[in-house]
Amino acid sequence: MKFYTWIIRYRLYLGITLIVIGVAANIFSGFWPAFPAYFIGAIMIFGHFFVGPLRLIQDHMETGDLEGAEKVLNSIKYPNLLYKPIRSAFFTFKGQLAMMKQDFDGAELNMKKGLDLGTPMKEVKGASLLQMGMIALQKNNFKQGESYIRQAIREGLPDKENEAAAYLQMCNIMMNKREFRAAKEFFRKTKALKPTTPDIVKQIKEIEKYISRIPG
Asked: How many CA atoms does the CB half-sphere of 163 hold within 13 Å?
């Protein structure tokens, strides 16, 4: 795995080196002895611009290394050359980083770019829509936030923790709208998923203190 990561990180430089080796071999030995170096070098250069180092970003995000993830993102100088689904993931990652830095305008802009490009996986789209909903709520745009979160639930979410987060946000939205019956139903769905994320567990405990006393 470390070797694979190293290849991704230095793919462009390895590709250029192989092309140079191919040129030297071509001069001294002819085209066919140089062909393997040309071929592998071209594939590496093509992969650098068409596929990019998204795997490295994912590894950094999973370990919480935001600085490392941002460094990899900034190394992608020509994102428009990336394969479309990978370009979508690139903007999604940018949006996630911006959201973690409390840059909600930047997060919304990049998340929208990612969604507009589309994704082959419905769960990824659902997770992006949920984050868009969270951003809208942070900006006090409750109508837009509700719309995004409902779309996220319809599209499907990648795991129970994301589902619980979506239902909990809908519970809060419904309470703000004084639609208490709906709020209680979303709260029931949240608890049924038995989430373990500390922030969600804390919110459930807070709501549990008074939700049984509200009408509906």
From this structure: 16
What gap in Å lies between CA 34 and CA 14, rounded to an integer?
Answer: 15
Burial class (CB in 10 A: 0-12, 13-18, 19+), 140: exposed
CA-to-CA separations, 55 to 4, 5, 51, 52, in angstroms, rounded: 10, 8, 9, 8
Compute the distance between CA of residue 65 and CA of residue 197 in angstroms, rounded to an integer: 19
Q: What whole-number distance in Å separates Cα of residue 175 and Cα of residue 60?
A: 37
pTM of the complete model? 0.77
Q: Please answer whether residues 97 and 73 qualify as being in contact, where contact means their C-beta atoms are separated by less than 8 angstroms.
A: yes
Q: Are 90 and 73 in contact (CB under 8 A)?
A: yes
**How far, CA to CA in Å, does 117 sit from each of 24, 73, 90, 191?**
42, 18, 11, 34
Q: Given phi > 0 = left and psi -120 to 50 = alpha, else beta, which region is 118? A: left
Over the chain (216 residues), what is each successive 10-residue block's mean pLDDT?
81 95 94 94 95 84 82 91 91 88 90 84 82 91 94 92 96 93 95 94 92 79
Alpha-carbon gap, residue 141 to 131, rounded angstroms: 13
Q: Give the whole-angstrom CA distance, residue 64 versus residue 60.
A: 6
